[in-house]
Amino acid sequence: MAVHDYLTRTDSDTLYSKPGLDLLLVETELCRAVISLQGAQVLEFAARDRAPLLWLSPTSVFEAGVAIRGGVPLCLPWFGEDLNDPSKPKHGLVRTQYWELVGSKAETDGAVVLEMRFQHAGDELFAASFDCTLKIGLGESLTFDLELCNTADIPADYSWALHSYFAVEDVNAVEVEGLDGGEFLDKTRGFARDRLSGMQTFAGEVDRVFEQAPARQVIQTPSPITAESDNCHTVITWNPGAELAATIHDIREHYRGFVCVEHGNAFADRWQLQPGERAGARLALSR
Ligand SMILES: O=P(O)(O)OC[C@H]1O[C@H](O)[C@H](O)[C@@H](O)[C@@H]1O
């Protein structure tokens, strides 16, 4: 398959009638996907004859430097608030920066792999320079292969997550399998430690960090979603619930349509990389 057979360069005006960002559209026998060059963020993915995997806010803005609400943003090199300096942007730097598409190829099984790259020079927000490659696999499932290299001459801590917004029929009826018995930090209660018994459900606001979490979760909703990871030790479960959602301009009443089950290495699982050291991880999502 030649590149132009499956990849179209487009923009948010053409696809969503909201000018502002350059997008990639991938259409193959196996799937349809939309990817934003800002953030290397997958916004839409549906395998052929399958329900859409991801939720993209109908009220998201598409503006350079502003986080897009939905899909799979990559939060890196810190996750959530920078605890040492809350004035820094939430969820790191890379989700609001333009990434370079450095390569694309079609595999023999028909899957398309896009290779995206972002290089950080080191600045006042994050002193260490780093080089980040994200290979996005678009086939029957959606896969991410992340590789990060600390290119600085100082050691640095990297805390990150692929912040998947999964499309669900009704968040109140969703159950997440694969976290039973896990200890978590409850962000809604000042990071209090607690332990989950049974399935993770979403009655109201949920914001939990599971360290050393199992590699596989199943999101039970009509047409279940499976997430399977390799070297992602942290799972974060999030939905703001009705009350908090009402204060978030690009969520509001739409909170019922998604659940976030995020995979990465944050908090105690963060990567501590020496100068020149690399680390990698993989995540596969399917429905
Ligand atoms: O609104 P954002 O900056 O995209 O963050 C959205 C959410 O991301 C994660 O799930 C965090 O654990 C939440 O605390 C946060 O509210």
* Helix content estimate: under 10%
- The overall number of domains is 1
- The chain-level mean pLDDT equals 97
Question: What hetero molecules are in the model?
Answer: 6-O-phosphono-alpha-D-glucopyranose
Strand order of the largest sheet: 6-7-8-9-23-19-18-13-16
Question: CA-to-CA gap between the ends?
Answer: 25 Å
- The CATH class, by name, is Mainly Beta
Number of helices: 3
| Main sheet: strands, sense, barrel | 9 strands, antiparallel
Weakly predicted, low-confidence segments: none
What is the string of SSEs from the N terminus onward? HEHEEEEEEEEEEEEEEEEEEEHEEE
CA-based shape? globular
Q: Structural class of the helix and strand makeup? A: mainly beta
The count of β-strands is: 23
User: What is CATH's topology name?
Assistant: Beta-galactosidase, Chain A, domain 5
CATH architecture tag? Distorted Sandwich
Beta-strand portion reads 35-45%
Radius of gyration: 18 Å
Family: Belongs to the glucose-6-phosphate 1-epimerase family.
Pfam families: Aldose_epim
Keywords: Isomerase
InterPro entries: Aldose_1/G6P_1-epimerase, G6P_1-epimerase, Gal_mutarotase_sf_dom, GH-type_carb-bd
Overall description:
The protein contains 3 helices and 23 strands. By secondary structure, it is mainly beta. The chain has a single domain (3-286), classed as Beta-galactosidase, Chain A, domain 5 (Distorted Sandwich). Strand 14 and strand 15 (192-195) form a beta hairpin. It binds 6-O-phosphono-alpha-D-glucopyranose. 6-O-phosphono-alpha-D-glucopyranose (G6P) is lined by residues 67, 80, 90-91, 187, 207, 236, 238, 260, 262. Residues 67, 80, 90-91, 187, 207, 236, 238, 260, 262 line the site of 6-O-phosphono-alpha-D-glucopyranose. It is an enzyme of class 5 (isomerase). It catalyses: alpha-D-glucose 6-phosphate = beta-D-glucose 6-phosphate.
